[in-house]
Amino acid sequence: MIFSDNASLFAKKGFSDWKNAVGVKRSSLKIHEESDAHIYAAEAAKDFIAICQGSKPDIYYSLSKSYENRVAKNRAILISIIDIIVVLGQRNIALRGNWDRELKKEDGNFQFFIDWKSTYDLTLKELLETASRSLRYLSPEVQNELIQCCELEIRERLIDNCKKSKFFAVCADETTDVSVKEQLSICVRYVVSDTNDIREDFLGFVEPGQVDAEHISKAIFENLQNWGLNLVNLRGQGYDGASVMSGVVSGVQQRIKEQCPNAPYVHCKSHNLNLVVTDSCKNVRQVRNLMASVGQMTWFLCASYKRKEILKSFTGDKDLLNELLEGVDSDGDNIDVSLLKKGGD
């Protein structure tokens, strides 16, 4: 009665003809047992008991399983795409490329690796062959969102490592990029509690808006707080020697020190060294002459394959020679080009 939606005698009205319940001519129970309504109700009751005992999934689970399979498939597609973005980022390779008018798609590194990976990734291949363009997760907007997600994941892990050490110092520097945007790079420096190693991690680029001390210090404060760092644990500042950063009256270091008195300013040692070397090369005659001679000698050897091979025959170490001559700047100052023309080779 519970599992039947048919208005049969046994389901709705009730059975009273017991003298004909069994027999050869009119076996009402036998007829009912073979009826479609009884078979359907018996099967429904059997399914109900199986579902209650947990031996068979219910319809909600079946629908949910189909949804889970679809979600798992979409996640596999996104993982394949993210994998390509991460690899390109690790190798410092740009994702973008030129727009192909005939194929109506971008012919860039990202698209190239998507096509390449689809040759063995069947899930990705199915996406490219069946999905519409708006559902392929390959648009520039989706690429930028995935890059931002990678950025957030990496920064979160770096912040967690920094929190384990509790105390930290901040290092920052601002510069103008190729798109003429002012970019402020922010790093944290801390001691790893387990190994006592000193780490310096880059947390990201931010746009300070303006390049004065007020906006730069505000950008440092707000971003460190938004990223989850407690400024009470700030124990140092490291910048270059520009007055905007190092000013003792209203510079960035002074503004931050007013709110974090336990964070003294230290002039960046690498910047100090660079200033010393630059000043020495310009003002100390012996150093200036040495650098000029080394530069001229290097250019003299590198400008000719013949001279370079002769030097190899004396050194006998090809790798060492390449390391010594590596990184020569063709626009270097104090290079006597006339030396390169001697010998006629």
The overall strand count is: 7
Strand content: 5-15%
Span between termini: 106 Å
Mean pLDDT: 80
Shape descriptor: elongated
Briefly note the structural class of the backbone. alpha/beta
SSE arrangement, N to C: HHHHEEHHHEEEHEHHEHHHH
The value of Rg in angstroms is 37 Å
Largest sheet properties = 5 strands, mixed
Residue windows where pLDDT falls under 50 for at least 5 positions: 328-345
* Helical residues, percent: 40-55%
What topology, given as strand order, has the largest sheet?
Answer: 5-4-3-6-7
Number of helices: 14
Verbal overview:
This protein has helices spanning 9-13, 28-33, 36-53, 59-90, 109-117, 122-130, 140-165, 213-226, 243-246, 252-259, 269-283, 285-302, 305-315, 318-324; strands at residues 97-100, 105-108, 168-176, 182-191, 198-206, 234-239, 265-267. Helices cover 53% and strands 13% of the residues. The radius of gyration is 37 Å and the shape is elongated. It is of the alpha/beta class. Helix 4 (59-90) packs across helix 5, helix 8 (213-226) packs across helix 10 (252-259) and helix 11 (269-283) packs across helix 12 (285-302). The chain starts with 8 loop residues before the first helix and ends in a 21-residue tail after the last helix. The longest helix is centred in the N-terminal third of the chain and has 32 residues, at 59-90.
Blueprint of the fold:
Blueprint: H1 9-13, H2 28-33, H3 36-53, H4 59-90, E1 97-100, E2 105-108, H5 109-117, H6 122-130, H7 140-165, E3 168-176, E4 182-191, E5 198-206, H8 213-226, E6 234-239, H9 243-246, H10 252-259, E7 265-267, H11 269-283, H12 285-302, H13 305-315, H14 318-324
Parallel strand pairs: 3-6, 6-7
Antiparallel strand pairs: 1-2, 3-4, 4-5
